[in-house]
Amino acid sequence: MTGVEVGIASVVLIVLLIYAGLYITVALGLISFVGVWIIRGNIDIAVSLLSLSVAGTVSHEVFATVPLFALMGLIVGQAGLGKDIYDVANHLFYKISGGLGIATVAANAIFASITGSSIASASVFTRISVPEMRRFGYTARFSVGVVAGSSVLGMLIPPSAMLIIYAVVTEQSVGHMFLAGIVPGIVLAVAYGIAIPIMARVAPNFVGGGDTGTGDEDWRQMTFGGAIIKLLPIATLVLVVLGGIYGGVVTPVEAGAVGSLGALIIALIKRKMTWRGLWEVLVETGHITATILFLIVAASMYSRMIGMAGLPTLFGEWLVAQGFELVAIMVLYVILVVLLGTIIDPASIILIVVPLFLGTIETFGSSIVWFGIVTVVAAEIGLLTPPLGISCFVIKSTINDPTISLKDIFIGAFPFAVIMLMVLILLIAYPQLSLILT
Known about the structure:
Layout: H1 3-19, H2 24-40, H3 43-57, H4 65-78, H5 81-93, H6 99-115, H7 118-135, H8 140-151, H9 161-170, H10 174-202, H11 204-207, H12 224-246, H13 252-269, H14 275-309, H15 311-321, H16 326-341, H17 346-363, H18 368-381, H19 390-399, H20 406-429, H21 432-435
Helix pairs in contact: 1-2, 1-14, 2-3, 2-14, 3-14, 4-13, 4-14, 5-6, 5-12, 6-7, 6-8, 6-10, 6-12, 7-8, 7-19, 8-20, 9-10, 9-17, 9-18, 10-18, 10-20, 12-13, 14-17, 15-17, 16-17, 16-18, 17-18, 18-20, 19-20
């Protein structure tokens, strides 16, 4: 087999193995190792390349952001700051048609700016938002759908783990990627906020709402001072982490460390952190870090393998030979990413597909930073679509309500997936939305 044939076969096999249920790390690492062995005909070269992949990735300073931001996000969740955000957002928007849905979007957007995790957002706000919306007469499908839709903001609004992974794969600045994610994240959140009242008017049976609710409703009488007190810890963390990075005071790694320390202090002041809770947070941080770093090592091996096979160069030459313009290539790319998003997670998409298209995008002189934002948004759509809508599965496992099926969650998330697609088209048509702050 030629190198190109091995490269093509490896991509197909990796996707098939992931779809069959094999861990992405194992699929990427195993197929890449065997691919190099076949191409060079020498197992020692494959072993050497694997060693280089480990040494050249995990030892990089930027990867220290992974455990630090994961730790900060978990401590924030433990401290109950998600509920504080929701209480304030609830107070501001509950009088508007579909207001609790808007409150959930607003709270998720703020929460995402601290944790950078869609999974954390989906888990936290399933427990907080869904019971509240159900109590006020919103339908089950809309309640879980708005949580699923707004949870993906964690993938886009910095600090985002997906933006970090993309920055490493494409050798871009993490700070630039964080800056590029701010405006698109705000645009997506605003689009949700505009669409929800429209949905409430056009499809009231889908949205529901309007009941007065029962039980403790002290948040309605929340004073300005009370709102400030609830938001002060969040505002402090945002100022320290994002303000520190963009102000040039700290690096992203240092910001993660300071943010984690700040979150821990807040949790201790609120008396939400016990020794047992701290131990559980540290263990979970270790699990998340190990998973991501092993994934990146395997992805580095994969990138080296397809580079050795000459597949990116050949693929780019083929696209150019077909006479495709940049718009046609982006349409093809988005369709591919969205389709892959129905079967594999966004990190896997970034690691598998981006190296194939990167050379072509550079040939057209387009911004790699803008391409990353488009990639992340397109991959996010897959979080809401069957059969592998990760956010939807997280909500199902968290909600523990047998009356709400996985089908209900996917149906509820569908309008938000459509809104994301519209925003994606806007970002492709106007790249400056992603680049205005960089």
